[in-house]
C-alpha cells in the first residue's frame, strides 16, 4: 500500500504527465456533460421508458446512455469506428490503400483524412435513420419536418464533436482518446447496474449479501482471466548475426517476437455480434417470421444463440488473424535484418514455422474469446440482472481491460523515463500491441 501511494505521488511530480492527466479528465468531463443535452425540439419528460435492447442496447452502452436519452451525442463515436474498420479492411484488400499504409507519416495522414470524410457520410446516414426510428413522435414538440432536418445536422455535428474531443485527448492527454471516450460511456452504466444488483440481492429474497459477495468475486476472477488472455503472448526467439562496423559490434543478441494469443482483439466479437443481430432485424421487419426458429436468436441467453455466437467468434478469430498477421512479411523482414530463428532455415521454412505457431496459439485464444463473449448470458442464467451481467464479458469487458492496460502502459513509460519505479513491483505493464480499428495514431479498441 505504501508503494502505491509513493507511485501516485511520483505521477503527480512529473509536470507534463500531471498536465496530460488533468487535461484528459477535463475533456472527459465535458463529454459527459454535453451527452446529457437533449436534441432541440424534444421534450425529455415525454420520452418515457426509452431503454434499448439488442444492437441498439449495445450502441447505447458505447454512447454512455446518450442513445436512449435522445442526446445531441446519441450516435457517439460509432460512425467513426465503422469508418475506421472499413478503411482498415480496404488497407488489406485494395492495393492503393496498402501503398498508403507503407508511406509512413504522409500515408497515415491521408488515411486519417479518408476516415474523417467517410465518418461524415456514415454519420449523415445513421442520423437520418435514428431520427426516423428512435425518436418517439409524441416527444417532438416542434414541426416534424423542421425537427427532421435540424436533428440530422445536430447529430452529425455531435459525432464530429466527439471525434474532435478524442483526437484532442490523443494529442494532448494520456491514452487513446476515442477508446477512453468509449470506456467512460461503458463505465457510466456501472453505478446504475451495480445499484440495481445490490437492490435485487439485499431487498427481498435475492440471496442476501453472501450472493452479492460471490458475484463480485466471480467478476474479479473474470477480469483477471480477461487480462490473462489480452496479455498472453508466445515468445519466438530470434537470433541476429554479429556484425563488426569499425570498432563497434552490432547484433549477436537474442530477441523475441511476441505473438499474441488473442491477436484479433475485440474485432471477432464485433463482427459476430453484427451477424447475430440479423435474425432479430428480420423478425422486426417481417412479423410472420416471429413464429419460426429465427425467434430463438432474439434472446441472447438461449442455447442456440450462445452456440452460434461462439462458433462465429472462433471462425472470425481465425479469419481476422489470417488477414492481419503476415508470416511471410515477418520472415522477409527478419531475413533483411540478418535475423533467424534458431534451428529454422531463413525464408520459407521460417514463414511456415511462424504460421504453425500462430495457428496453434490462435485456437485456444479463439476458444477463450468465445467463452468471454458468452459469459454475460451465463451470468443471466445464474440470476444476475441483465444490466450488471454485461460487465461479466463481451465487448464491454474487453474494451475496458484493453483501454486501462494501454493507458497504464503510457503512464508507466513516463515514470520509467524519469527513473521512478513503475506501476508494477515486478515486470512492466505491456499494454496492447494490436487491436487496431483505424490507421495511425487514432486507432481504437
From TrEMBL:
The chain crosses the membrane at residues 21-39, 70-94, 114-133, 145-165, 177-194, 206-230, 261-282, 302-325, 361-384, 390-408. Coiled coil: none annotated. It is found in: Cell membrane; Membrane. PROSITE patterns: SECY_1, SECY_2. It is a multi-pass membrane protein. GO terms for cellular component: plasma membrane. Keywords: Cell membrane, Membrane, Protein transport, Translocation, Transmembrane, Transmembrane helix, Transport. Pfam families: SecY (PF00344). Its main location: membrane. GO terms for biological process: intracellular protein transmembrane transport; protein targeting; protein transport by the Sec complex. Component of the Sec protein translocase complex. Heterotrimer consisting of SecY, SecE and SecG subunits. The heterotrimers can form oligomers, although 1 heterotrimer is thought to be able to translocate proteins. Interacts with the ribosome. Interacts with SecDF, and other proteins may be involved. Interacts with SecA. Belongs to the SecY/SEC61-alpha family. The central subunit of the protein translocation channel SecYEG. Consists of two halves formed by TMs 1-5 and 6-10. These two domains form a lateral gate at the front which open onto the bilayer between TMs 2 and 7, and are clamped together by SecE at the back. The channel is closed by both a pore ring composed of hydrophobic SecY resides and a short helix (helix 2A) on the extracellular side of the membrane which forms a plug. The plug probably moves laterally to allow the channel to open. The ring and the pore may move independently. This is Protein translocase subunit SecY. It comes from Pedobacter nyackensis.
Amino acid at each position: 500500500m505504501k508503494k502505491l501511494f509513493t507511485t501516485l505521488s511520483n505521477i503527480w511530480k512529473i509536470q507534463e504527465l500531471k498536465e496530460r492527466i488533468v487535461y484528459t479528465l477535463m475533456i472527459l468531463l465535458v463529454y459527459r456533460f454535453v451527452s446529457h443535452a437533449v436534441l432541440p425540439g424534444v421534450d425529455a419528460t415525454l420520452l418515457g421508458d426509452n431503454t434499448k435492447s439488442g444492437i441498439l442496447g449495445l450502441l447505447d452502452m458505447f454512447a454512455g446512455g446518450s442513445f436512449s436519452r435522445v442526446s445531441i451525442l446519441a450516435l457517439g463515436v460509432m460512425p467513426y469506428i465503422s469508418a475506421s474498420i472499413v478503411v482498415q479492411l480496404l488497407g488489406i484488400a485494395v492495393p492503393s490503400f496498402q501503398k498508403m499504409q507503407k508511406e509512413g507519416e504522409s500515408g497515415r495522414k491521408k488515411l486519417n483524412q479518408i476516415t474523417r470524410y467517410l465518418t461524415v457520410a456514415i454519420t449523415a446516414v445513421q442520423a437520418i435513420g435514428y431520427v426516423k426510428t428512435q425518436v418517439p413522435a409524441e416527444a417532438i414538440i416542434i414541426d416534424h419536418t423542421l425537427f427532421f432536418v435540424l436533428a440530422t445536422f445536430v447529430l452529425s455535428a455531435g459525432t464530429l464533436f466527439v471525434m474532435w474531443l478524442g483526437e484532442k485527448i490523443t494529442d494532448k492527454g494520456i491514452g487513446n482518446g476515442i477508446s477512453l471516450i468509449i470506456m467512460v460511456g461503458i463505465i457510466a452504466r456501472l453505478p446504475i447496474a451495480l445499484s440495481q444488483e445490490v437492490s435485487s440481492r439485499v431487498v427481498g429474497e435475492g440471496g442476501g449479501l453472501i450472493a452479492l459477495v460471490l458475484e463480485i468475486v466471480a467478476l474479479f476472477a473474470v477480469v483477471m482471466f480477461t487480462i490473462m488472455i489480452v496479455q498472453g503472448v508466445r515468445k519466438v526467439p530470434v537470433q541476429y548475426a554479429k556484425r563488426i562496423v569499425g570498432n563497434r559490434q552490432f547484433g549477436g543478441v537474442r530477441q523475441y517476437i511476441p505473438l499474441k494469443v488473442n491477436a484479433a482483439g475485440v474485432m471477432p466479437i464485433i463482427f459476430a455480434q453484427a451477424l447475430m443481430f440479423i435474425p432479430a432485424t428480420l423478425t422486426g421487419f417481417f412479423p410472420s417470421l416471429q413464429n419460426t426458429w429465427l425467434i430463438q436468436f432474439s434472446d441472447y441467453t438461449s442455447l442456440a444463440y450462445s452456440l452460434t455466437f461462439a462458433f462465429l467468434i472462433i471462425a472470425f478469430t481465425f479469419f481476422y488473424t489470417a488477414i492481419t498477421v503476415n508470416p511471410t512479411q515477418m520472415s522477409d523482414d527478419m531475413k533483411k535484418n540478418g535475423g533467424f530463428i534458431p534451428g529454422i532455415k531463413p525464408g520459407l521454412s521460417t514463414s511456415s514455422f511462424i504460421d504453425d505457431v500462430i495457428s496453434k496459439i490462435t485456437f485456444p485464444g479463439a476458444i477463450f474469446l468465445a467463452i468471454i463473449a458468452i459469459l454475460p448470458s451465463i451470468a443471466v442464467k445464474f440470476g444476475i440482472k441483465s444490466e450488471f451481467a454485461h460487465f461479466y464479458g463481451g465487448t464491454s469487458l474487453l474494451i475496458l481491460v484493453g483501454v486501462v492496460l494501454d493507458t497504464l502502459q503510457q503512464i508507466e513509460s513516463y515514470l520509467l523515463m524519469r527513473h521512478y519505479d513503475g506501476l508494477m513491483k515486478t515486470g512492466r505493464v505491456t499494454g496492447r500491441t494490436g487491436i487496431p480499428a483505424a490507421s495511425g495514431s487514432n486507432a481504437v479498441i
